[in-house]
Amino acid sequence: EPEVTQTPSHQVTQMGQEVILRCVPISNHLYFYWYRQILGQKVEFLVSFYNNEISEKSEIFDDQFSVERPDGSNFTLKIRSTKLEDSAMYFCASSGRANTEAFFGQGTRLTVV
Amino acid sequence: AQSVTQLGSHVSVSEGALVLLRCNYSSSVPPYLFWYVQYPNQGLQLLLKYTTGATLVKGINGFEAEFKKSETSFHLTKPSAHMSDAAEYFCAVSLRTDKLIFGTGTRLQVFP
């Protein structure tokens, strides 16, 4: 069964460092998303990406964040200068069509120290 | 603004008992509604969804949910809980845009 794959599963980084979280969406999907879940809180939308551009982003997704689809298979989230409050589980998701269910990856737990 | 409210952050039931997890939404347009489940240390898995048509939706693992427009609700039920149902359950709404808006989640515990 096709699935969304995220790497690494856990990343520890020092405050101020850049991190790149990687995702391989389901191969024939066209819509890509990043969500995050701070420990004990709800899952929050960060950004959606379609046709090689951002289609929507939340207030959380400020200038420190960027997304890229560098090739036909990967979808990345970059945080330029991490803060302690960026510590969270980051989920990548993809869907085949707009307004249909999104398939989520297992998540990357980011810990900023 | 759209929102999702899940009543009860923790629900405990005995094995074999009815499971009822509550979800209410606020929306200015007809929503698409979803329930996702998150098992420990895993990602989010879709249980079921409502888009249009029949208001009673059946999902995986014996779960179902009913869209009630008059009550702005989409409660999740299962007639008989199993130990393996212990997980965190998230209700989510999509309002004709790509993004999902999640509720705060309900942790289901099942006791033998």
Commentary on this structure:
Chain A is mainly β. Chain A has strands at residues 5-7, 10-13, 19-24, 31-37, 43-50, 53-57, 65-68, 75-79, 88-95, 103-104, 108-112. In chain A, the strands form two sheets. In chain A, strands 2, 4, 5, 6, 9, 10 and 11 form a seven-stranded mixed β-sheet that branches. In chain A, strands 1-3-8-7 form a four-stranded antiparallel β-sheet, with no helix packed on it. In chain A, strand 7 (65-68) and strand 8 form a beta hairpin. Chain B is 0% helix and 52% strand. In chain B, strand 5 (32-38) and strand 6 (44-50) form a beta hairpin. The A-B interface holds A 4, 31, 33, 35, 41-45, 48, 50, 55-56, 58, 91, 93, 95, 98-107 and B 32, 34, 36, 42-46, 49, 51, 90, 92, 94, 96-105.
Oligomer: heterodimer
Structural class of the helix and strand makeup of chain B? mainly beta
Low-confidence stretches of chain A: none
Beta-strand content estimate of chain B: over 45%
Give the N-terminus to C-terminus distance of chain B in angstroms.
Answer: 41 Å
User: How far is the first residue's CA from the last residue's CA of chain A?
Assistant: 36 Å
Task: Label the structural class of chain A.
Answer: mainly beta
Low-confidence stretches of chain B: none
